[in-house]
Design goal:
Elements: E1 3-8, H1 17-25, E2 34-38, H2 41-49, E3 54-59
Antiparallel strand pairs: 1-2, 1-3
Length: 60
């Protein structure tokens, strides 16, 4: 599977609780924090849910 690098670029203040929990599940929580994860269908769904708070790039 391909890996993706996810970086949080916006705050979760004044966001719904489900979005806050999704950010936590991805391993983020503070602005500019970055994680590298496998691009599974579950992760892809979480990325779509909070796409407005993060930036995503594929790792080749």
């Amino acid at each position: 599977m391909a890996k993706v690098r996810i970086k949080q670029v916006r705050s979760t203040i004044k966001r719904p609780e489900t979005q806050k929990r999704t950010i936590q599940a991805l391993g983020l929580g503070k602005i500019n924090r970055t994680v590298e994860v496998e691009n599974t269908p579950q992760i892809a769904g979480m990325i779509r849910k909070v796409a407005h708070l993060i930036s995503v790039e594929e790792i080749v």
